């Protein structure tokens, strides 16, 4: 399921994410591997990373499947005086007017692709919309994170103006995690409740790296996220860098 009513409150739950540091990390990878300045930020959500990459001198387009998320992203960009086009597109069917230098997909976008066929469709779609030699950057939450850190857990928070209940169920055979969220927002003396369900898959590193090659990329690097180190056995996020052959 894509983000719906939750989009308006997504940034509240993500308040502790260091988007400036994340943007600096992505920028450093682009500079290191010579990616250029024209960038598509896929599964951009509410645009927090997209906006910061734009502020670092990149020519940005943001895309997401959720119109509610895109609405929030557009509002934020305008409030900061930025003219960023945000378009509704599926990861598996990217369509741009002309190829870009870099395609980026951060913060679990690829985990929402629930089979290797869907991941391959994304890679092929990215390949078609990249310049020759262009870069594909993306990250994945690891199997360890989905199974051991998030899996079969209850998470809750009770704040002054909102509260949420978040229940996870992980299936080791399919490597799918179902995340069920109930959100309560204070309106006067009452609370408005809405619910969403999200499903993600844990993709293994060897699957991803092999699939990149099959889909026309040179697998350039895999890092423990936010580092230049080899992914760790109990790491929670892997950053991938690939170049279009």
What does the secondary structure layout of this molecule look like, with pairings?
Layout: H1 10-13, H2 19-33, E1 38-42, H3 48-55, E2 59-64, H4 67-79, E3 86-88, E4 100-105, H5 116-128, E5 130-141, H6 143-149, E6 154-158, E7 162-171, E8 176-187, E9 190-201, H7 205-214, E10 217-224, E11 237-244
Parallel strand pairs: 1-2, 1-4, 2-3, 4-5
Antiparallel strand pairs: 5-11, 6-7, 7-8, 8-9, 10-11
Helix pairs in contact: 2-3, 5-7
What would your notes on this structure say?
With 245 residues, the chain is α/β, with parallel strands linked by helices. 29% of the residues lie in helices and 36% in strands. It has seven helices and eleven strands. The strands form two sheets. The protein has a seven-stranded mixed sheet with strand order 3-2-1-4-5-11-10, sandwiched between helices. Strands 6-7-8-9 form a four-stranded antiparallel sheet, covered by helices on one side. A hairpin with a 3-residue loop joins β6 and β7 (162-171). α2 (19-33) packs across α3 and α5 (116-128) packs across α7. The longest helix has 15 residues, at 19-33. The model has no long low-confidence stretch (mean pLDDT 94).
Average of pLDDT? 94
Stretches with pLDDT under 50, minimum 5 residues: none
Number of helices: 7
Radius of gyration: 18 Å
Find the structural class using helix and strand composition.
alpha/beta
Series of H and E elements: HHEHEHEEHEHEEEEHEE
Distance between the termini: 33 Å
Largest sheet: 7 strands, mixed
DSSP summary, beta strand count: 11
The main sheet orders its strands as 3-2-1-4-5-11-10
